[in-house]
């Protein structure tokens, strides 16, 4: 409690110091500027700040904070920045930070080599806990596995809109505007480890894995499209026997006809399907849309195969995202 009061008092004095610097610099830039006997230059600002907070702050952070004050008098920087909470990429100081009396920050590893080009964005990111890696998919077609080493593939195809991992087949799956990409990332043959399932009639927007069966050679995925349809596609290992397919000329992909797969679909929404997810704990799938009438659906996956009514509710302007919390047993939606 005493340490908290001491810090609170120091913070109040520091904020008064900042206000005084702002007032002083504002006067200096006006036409009515006058000499101030109690002028606060950088040396005085540094000495006062160091006296208030001691070794909890570093010299470069004090210098950066002072520079931000005088360059932006209309809006002073947040005091948090004084403790190095917003270190830039080029500072290279994160690993040198010592324990602070204010913040305890765990050290993180920064990936220096960028795998996404400029003017590209990440459209999907999936954690695979049991294999201890992360999958990302960028809009312009870069699928990456972040492991002890970075493994990536450039798809050179239509824009990717989502990705996931097939736990039984051990493949990465991604959807684009008109195709489904399946990547056997374990294959040593980089030119023969990718499959494209097409054609898909409507533009696909999202994908997720369905974990219902213990069948070791079969996986299913849910997908949503721009017309409000939700698809269930089942894949087995036999679908990916290389001799069945021919690669497109000049491409590393083997083309698979979508008609050879078991695909069921049902129109659940009257607008774009923003997200689909299978919730294993509930044995239900969920899908959401910007549709104001049928904004969110939560029901048994068998409803995709029949025409029975589905459990749904409406939200003005629709639902953009949702998640399930098993501990609290609640579903939260965001519109």
Automatic annotation (TrEMBL):
Gene3D superfamilies: YVTN repeat-like/Quinoprotein amine dehydrogenase (2.130.10.10). The keyword ATP-binding does not apply. Keywords: Repeat. PANTHER family: WD REPEAT-CONTAINING PROTEIN 64, WD40 REPEAT DOMAIN 95. This is WDR64 protein. It comes from Pitta sordida (Hooded pitta).
């Amino acid at each position: 409690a005493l340490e908290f009061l001491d810090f609170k008092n120091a913070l109040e004095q520091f904020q008064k110091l900042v206000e005084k610097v702002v007032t002083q610099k504002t006067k200096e830039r006006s036409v009515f500027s006058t000499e101030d006997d109690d002028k606060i230059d950088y040396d005085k600002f540094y000495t006062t700040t160091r006296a208030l907070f001691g070794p909890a702050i570093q010299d470069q952070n004090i210098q950066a904070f002072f520079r931000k004050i005088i360059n932006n008098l209309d809006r002073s920087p947040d005091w948090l920045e004084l403790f190095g909470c917003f270190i830039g990429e080029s500072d290279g100081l994160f690993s040198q930070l010592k324990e602070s009396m204010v913040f305890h920050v765990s050290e993180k590893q920064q990936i220096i080599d960028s795998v996404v080009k400029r003017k590209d964005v990440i459209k999907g990111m999936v954690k695979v806990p049991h294999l201890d890696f992360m999958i990302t998919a960028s809009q312009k077609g870069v699928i990456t596995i972040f492991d002890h080493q970075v493994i990536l593939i450039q798809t050179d195809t239509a824009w990717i809109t989502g990705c996931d991992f097939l736990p039984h087949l051990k493949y990465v799956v991604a959807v684009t505007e008109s195709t489904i990409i399946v990547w056997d990332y374990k294959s040593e043959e980089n030119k023969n480890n990718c499959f494209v399932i097409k054609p898909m009639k409507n533009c696909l927007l999202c994908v997720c894995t369905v974990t219902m069966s213990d069948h070791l050679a079969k996986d299913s995925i849910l997908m949503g499209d721009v017309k409000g349809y939700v698809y269930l596609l089942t894949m087995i290992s036999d679908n990916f026997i290389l001799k069945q397919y021919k690669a497109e000329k000049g491409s590393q992909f083997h083309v698979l006809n979508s008609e050879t797969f078991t695909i069921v679909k049902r129109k659940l929404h009257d607008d774009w399907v923003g997200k689909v997810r299978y919730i294993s704990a509930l044995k239900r799938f969920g899908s959401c849309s910007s549709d104001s009438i049928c904004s969110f659906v939560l029901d048994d996956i068998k409803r995709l195969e029949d025409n029975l009514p589905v459990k749904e509710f409406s939200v003005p302007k629709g639902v953009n995202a949702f998640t399930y919390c098993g501990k609290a047993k609640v579903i939260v939606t965001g519109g």
